[in-house]
């Protein structure tokens, strides 16, 4: 679709044969409670047949499988000229068969030889002699099937089962006494507390981090550091704590221009599926409950000029795989869903504010409208595939490549915003010394396209629905779950391709299009675009400092002594920052954040409070610089006192001198907006003890988003 992906496709094609090797395995004799075992082909049971990708260069062999095998190729050394992953695979053969490379000069001097079976992709070699290895090497032997514990999969179960079946992996739907390779949780990392190995499809802390308030806070911190880069998230205030700030700003807007009448959308913090959401045009219309029952919510600029199709508002559900946080690896499924409203859109007015079928795209709401059309094809109805919508837009002359690259940027930046907190959770739940699983997770990004085609992030779902059936009234008053072809096509593809990417036997491989088709066509976006985005990973470096001083494993908050140790070790105290003022800073910030995080049980300073303290310290130390440079300078200073491990993984690319604009095309800024004034910034600016960093004067709020 975009230029970015041309390369990826080539790469995927080259890796195809290796990826598919993963699907044929031996059967594990220790299995218990097997639920559905793929019917093992005669080949996979004891014999494998291979055909040569280069035909005339590689000969076909049939061989029997026997007991133990050598893990080395006949040369006993890696085969040079092969990509590392291919070499790894070749070096761990499971089948006794031998694939002869005859006259290797021919095949190995040529371009990569690609095959469409379970075969090794042979890549261009600079030294055919080394690669030839006495004209012979062993093919990867077959291995047992990847095992997947689906006992906690909940509503993902149907799609998961289909995916596992397509992959010919082995499902354990009531759990298994022995460890599984992959555990599929329906809700959170903690669905099953007893996992000490393998991979779990949820990160600890993701649910918490992606709640509306936490996501808004994390993005706002990034908006303070990189306002232009983070303009894809609507301006947001957190209720009830920022009620005063919100109403003051709106009043100022209205006073400065009587024609301005912005609309806001109010979303309860823990809400989903449109529950409890409403639109307002005046702060006085907020349904605030005061006191202990005060409900936390986010109030957000309402994007009043969305792109319409057939006069209807729609949003995009994009599936994003976080394959790893350390190092950061992100994939985006190119196939996703679009969800349509069921009433023609009109810009918000006092009259239509409560018309949910016009303003909210949630399936759960619109399905209740008489106008909802269950899609029986991909490109009609109230839920369609993303590709069908993009094709339609392309046919109208829309620059899809640009839209897609803006979406990629939005996704990477959003993940970078939540990553620091995620790492704190991760080290607390799975400390390095403790045996534990590794994690991956599919996230559901809800994205709205504005009329000017700028993508706007609405929210990120830690637990996107993987249901592939929907409720339908089959007779008057009689409801039944019936298959939903669009959901099935997209979600089974997403899960299956995720599993393929997480295949424990092929760690270095990317997913390849599955022969069954209907894949989500995932593409790697990180580390692929590291260069363009690594400068944004500043808060992660602050988180690395924070984690370093947390001390006790499992802790997520810094105590006063640890905070003092941080100041001392990094040699931050001087005549302008006495240890007494350090204590005051700690108490001041921690107390305010303890109100903000009303539900937190642990005492001390959490990461977001530490980030605020860090910004404050940076402002005092490097007064003449702008905020971002202040922070970078203080980080450099701290890290210089701490040694090499303190930075984030791309430490070198995050240096102060790095040019901040990205190498790639910078998406146009679509949301004319004031520089956000976060409560943290506001507090820093007003705190007696604080000498704030230099920052531009906040502009007044321009109403809404303009196209
Ligand atoms: P929920 O988790 O309850 O689905 P969302 O944040 O996804 O909450 O919002 C629900 C719906 O409201 C979205 O699908 C979208 O149609 C609409 N919406 C949300 N935020 C905005 C916004 N800032 N501007 C315009 N529409 C929005």
Automatic annotation (TrEMBL):
Gene3D superfamilies for this protein: ATP-grasp fold, B domain
UniProt cross-references to Pfam families, sorted A to Z: TTL
Region Disordered, residue ranges: 1-45, 665-707
Single Gene Ontology BP annotation: microtubule cytoskeleton organization
Keywords: ATP-binding, Ligase, Nucleotide-binding
Compositionally biased residues, Acidic residues: 20-33
UniProt cross-references to InterPro entries, sorted A to Z: TTL/TTLL_fam (IPR004344)
UniProt feature, compositional bias: Low complexity: 34-45
Cellular component, GO annotation: ciliary basal body
GO molecular function, one term: tubulin binding
SUPFAM superfamilies: Glutathione synthetase ATP-binding domain-like
Protein name: Tubulin tyrosine ligase-like family, member 11
């Amino acid at each position: 679709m975009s230029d970015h992906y041309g390369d990826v496709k080539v790469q995927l094609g080259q890796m195809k044969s290796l990826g598919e090797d993963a699907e044929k395995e031996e059967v594990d004799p220790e299995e218990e409670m097997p639920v559905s075992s793929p019917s093992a082909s005669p080949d996979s049971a004891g014999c494998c047949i291979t055909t040569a990708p280069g035909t005339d260069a590689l000969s076909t062999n049939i061989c029997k499988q026997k007991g133990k095998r050598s893990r080395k190729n006949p040369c006993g050394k890696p085969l040079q000229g092969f990509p590392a992953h291919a070499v790894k695979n070749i070096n761990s053969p499971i089948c006794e068969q031998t694939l002869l490379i005859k006259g290797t000069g021919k095949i190995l001097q040529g371009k990569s030889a690609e095959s469409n079976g379970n075969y090794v992709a042979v890549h261009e070699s600079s030294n055919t002699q080394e690669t030839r290895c006495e004209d012979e090497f062993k093919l990867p032997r077959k291995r047992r099937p990847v095992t997947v514990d689906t006992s906690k999969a909940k509503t993902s179960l149907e799609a998961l089962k289909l995916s596992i079946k397509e992959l010919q992996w082995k499902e354990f739907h009531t759990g298994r006494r022995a460890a599984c390779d992959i555990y599929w949780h329906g809700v959170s990392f903690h669905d099953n507390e007893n996992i000490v190995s393998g991979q779990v499809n949820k990160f600890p802390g993701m649910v918490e981090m992606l709640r509306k308030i936490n996501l808004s806070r994390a993005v706002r911190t990034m908006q303070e550091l990189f306002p232009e880069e983070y303009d894809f998230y609507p301006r947001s205030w957190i209720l009830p704590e920022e009620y005063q700030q919100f109403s003051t700003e709106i009043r100022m807007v209205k006073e400065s221009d009587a024609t301005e009448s912005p609309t806001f959308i109010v979303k309860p913090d823990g809400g989903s599926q449109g529950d409890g959401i409403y639109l307002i045009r005046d702060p006085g219309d907020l349904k605030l409950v005061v006191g202990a029952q005060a409900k936390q919510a986010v109030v957000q600029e309402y994007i009043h000029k969305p792109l319409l199709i057939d006069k209807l508002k729609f949003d995009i559900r994009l599936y994003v795989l976080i394959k790893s946080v350390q190092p950061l690896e992100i994939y985006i499924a190119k196939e996703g869903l679009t969800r349509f409203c069921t009433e023609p859109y009109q810009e918000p007015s006092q009259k239509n504010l409560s018309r949910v079928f016009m303003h909210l795209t949630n399936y759960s709401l619109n399905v209740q409208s008489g106008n909802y059309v269950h899609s029986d094809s991909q490109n009609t109805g109230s839920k369609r595939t993303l590709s069908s919508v993009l094709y339609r837009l392309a046919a109208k002359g829309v620059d899809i490549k640009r839209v897609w690259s803006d979406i990629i940027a939005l996704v990477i930046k959003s993940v970078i915003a939540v990553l620091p907190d995620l790492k704190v959770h991760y080290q607390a739940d799975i400390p390095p010394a403790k045996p534990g699983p590794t994690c991956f997770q599919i996230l559901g990004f809800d994205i709205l396209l504005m009329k000017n085609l700028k993508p706007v992030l609405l929210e990120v779902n830690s637990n996107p629905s993987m249901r592939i059936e929907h409720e339908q009234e089959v007779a008057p008053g009689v409801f039944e779950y019936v298959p939903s072809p669009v959901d099935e096509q997209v979600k089974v593809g997403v899960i299956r391709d995720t599993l393929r990417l997480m295949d424990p036997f092929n760690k270095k491989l990317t997913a390849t299009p599955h022969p069954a088709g209907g894949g989500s066509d995932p593409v790697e976006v990180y580390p692929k675009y590291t260069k363009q985005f690594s400068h944004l990973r500043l808060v992660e470096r602050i988180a690395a400092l924070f984690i370093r001083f947390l001390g006790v494993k499992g802790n997520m908050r810094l105590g006063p002594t640890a905070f003092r140790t941080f100041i001392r070790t990094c040699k931050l105290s001087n005549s302008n920052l006495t240890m007494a003022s350090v204590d005051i800073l700690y108490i001041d910030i921690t107390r305010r954040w303890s109100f903000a995080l009303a539900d937190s049980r642990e005492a001390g300073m959490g990461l977001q409070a530490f980030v605020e303290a860090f910004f404050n310290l940076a402002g005092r130390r490097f007064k003449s610089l702008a905020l971002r440079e202040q922070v970078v300078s203080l980080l450099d200073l701290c890290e210089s006192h701490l040694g090499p491990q303190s930075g984030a993984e791309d430490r070198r690319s995050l240096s102060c001198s790095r040019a901040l604009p990205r190498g790639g095309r910078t998406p146009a800024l679509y949301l004319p907006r004031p520089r956000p004034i976060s409560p943290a910034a506001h507090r820093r600016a007003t705190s007696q003890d604080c000498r704030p960093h230099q920052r531009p004067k906040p502009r007044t709020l321009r109403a809404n988003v303009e196209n």
